[in-house]
Amino acid sequence: MQNHCHLVEGSDQSGWISWESLGQRVKNPKHLIQWKRCSDMSIGWSGLVRFSPGQELPLHKHDPPEIYYILEGKPLIHLDGTEIRAKPLSCISIPSQCPHKVVNDSDQEVLIMYVYMEVNGNSVKPGQNHNWKFLEEV
Description:
The chain is mostly beta strands. It contains no helices and 10 strands. Strands 1-2-9-4-7 form a 5-stranded antiparallel β-sheet, with no helix packed on it. Strands 6-5-8-3-10 form a 5-stranded antiparallel β-sheet, with no helix packed on it. The chain is globular and about 40 Å long.
C-alpha cells in the first residue's frame, strides 16, 4: 500500500498556478487568479485559490459538485443567479452544473479552499470528463 500523506503549505509562494501557466490566454487581468492544488490526486481534488482585490473567477460550470470554504476575505459568490456575501469560515455548496462565479470587490485578499466531490460517478480528476465550461468571456 502506497502512502499518500503529505503537507502543502498555503503560505509557501511556490506551487501557485494560473490560467496562463496552463497555456490559456486571458484577455482581462481581473481573471488572473492563482490557485494551488493541495491534495494527492489519487485521494481527491482540493486546493486553494486566491484573489487579489478586483479579481474574479468568471462565471462557469462543471460536472463535479464543489465546496468552497472561505478562509480569508469577504467575496461575493454568484450561485445560479443569486449573490451571496461570504465571510471567513463560510461554507458554500455548489451542485453539479450550477453556474457560479467569485468576485473580490474588496480591498483585501480573498483565500478560498475548494474541494471537488465525487458524487454519482462524477470524476474528480482534472480533464475532459470534468466538463468545465466558461459562461462568460475570459
